[in-house]
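Input structure tokens:
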């Protein structure tokens, strides 16, 4: 078989070029520490790397969302704690104001403090997060969802929705509250009904604590009487009768008329409800029992302040403040429920963040196994490739000198 000089040169050159390419690849792996530097190094591995990088990027973004949501919820929690403290202080002042031994100036001093608390509450309700977004505006972009009107009342300009943050694929968590439920649409009275003395009463009747003692009987009684509640009317001789919201005689579930006698300091019970009373009613004095009413907490504080002004009788002041204390308790219960809810969400965010930290360790390990090179093996391969190339170069140097013309000199 005849081997031409040109063929031998081409074979040697091709071998050395391949070895140089392998040497360059080995050098690149050692210098970068990566087995896959371009997709052609390992197409399947490169595909896994893309998927893993996408997952890690998404987890990083979700973790950032969790951090932002946690900061916002922590701010909300801190603000609601302050609101709760303010409610406690307002309640203590109101109970103090019920003391009959106080002078008008003492009560006016309490009214001034309650006014300051109302203004502080308005400021707390308009608290914003680190980005300037109101905490209690729902999903509204307004920076001041609670606006004080000229007459001292407060209006809410936010909405009733809750903002959410994405913390996982298809997983969101609320990061804010609607101020409507927290401060505006607060259940009045005991949460089921409000029992209040008539404004035109002339006796010393004071409505105290009241409650639903039998929810089933209470609901049945409302249904029988049209659902609008009751009005108790006293005849001045210790007797009372009840009418419904339409002014018709009220009955129990069996159709019996609601009437009875009242002894000062006793309670009146019917249709699953109980109302404690004190004092002596005059003829024609009334007590209205209205279910399902609500009142904003700013109105509660304003009504307290108005009741502490001079010219209000002891009986009237006691009746007004008793009702406002009930409303304040309901507002405080609303805040407490929100605090519990926020605490649960914060715990969920903490758990989700820990899960991402664990997953990131797993994904990073998998990515390293797929992408990175075994340094010891890479260095060994680099040495082998370098030695092979040197050997090929030396062989080529010997081969290129083999020529017939060398023997014809």
């Amino acid at each position: 078989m005849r081997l031409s000089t040109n063929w031998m040169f081409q074979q040697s050159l091709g071998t050395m070029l391949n070895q140089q390419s392998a040497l360059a690849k080995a050098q690149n792996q050692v210098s970068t520490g990566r087995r896959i530097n371009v997709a052609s190094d390992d197409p399947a591995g490169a595909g896994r790397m893309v998927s893993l990088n996408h997952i890690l990027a998404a987890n990083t973004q979700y973790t950032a969302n969790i951090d932002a949501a946690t900061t916002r919820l922590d701010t909300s929690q801190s603000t609601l704690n302050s609101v709760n403290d303010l409610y406690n202080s307002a309640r203590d002042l109101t109970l103090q104001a019920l003391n009959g031994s106080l002078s008008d100036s003492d009560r006016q001093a309490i009214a001034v403090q309650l006014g300051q608390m109302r203004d502080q509450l308005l400021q707390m309700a308009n608290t914003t997060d680190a980005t300037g977004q109101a905490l209690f505006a729902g999903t509204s972009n307004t920076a001041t969802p609670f606006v004080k009107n000229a007459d001292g009342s407060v209006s809410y300009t936010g909405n009733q929705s809750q903002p959410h943050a994405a913390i996982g694929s298809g997983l969101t968590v609320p990061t804010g509250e609607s101020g409507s439920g927290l401060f505006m649409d607060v259940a009045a009275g005991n949460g089921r009904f409000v029992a209040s003395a008539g404004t035109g009463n002339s006796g010393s009747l004071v409505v105290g604590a009241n409650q639903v003692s039998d929810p089933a009987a209470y609901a049945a009684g409302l249904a029988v009487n049209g659902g609008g509640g009751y009005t108790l009317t006293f005849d001045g001789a210790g007797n009372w009768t009840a009418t419904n919201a339409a002014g018709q005689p009220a009955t129990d579930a069996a159709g019996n008329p609601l009437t009875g006698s009242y002894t000062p300091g006793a309670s009146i019970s019917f249709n699953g409800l109980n109302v404690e009373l004190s004092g002596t009613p005059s003829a024609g004095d009334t007590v209205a029992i209205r279910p399902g009413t609500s009142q904003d907490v700013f109105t509660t504080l304003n009504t307290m302040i108005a009741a502490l002004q001079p010219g209000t009788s002891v009986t009237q002041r006691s009746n007004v403040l008793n009702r406002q204390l009930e409303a304040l308790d309901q507002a405080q219960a609303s805040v407490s429920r929100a605090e519990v809810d926020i605490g649960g969400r914060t715990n969920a965010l903490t758990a989700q963040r820990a899960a991402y930290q664990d997953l990131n360790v797993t994904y990073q390990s998998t990515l390293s196994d797929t992408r990175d090179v075994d340094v010891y093996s890479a260095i060994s391969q680099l040495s082998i490739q370098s030695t092979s190339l040197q050997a090929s170069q030396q062989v080529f140097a010997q081969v290129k000198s083999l020529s017939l013309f060398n023997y014809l000199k």
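The chain has a mean pLDDT of 84. Residues 314-371 form the longest helix (58 residues).
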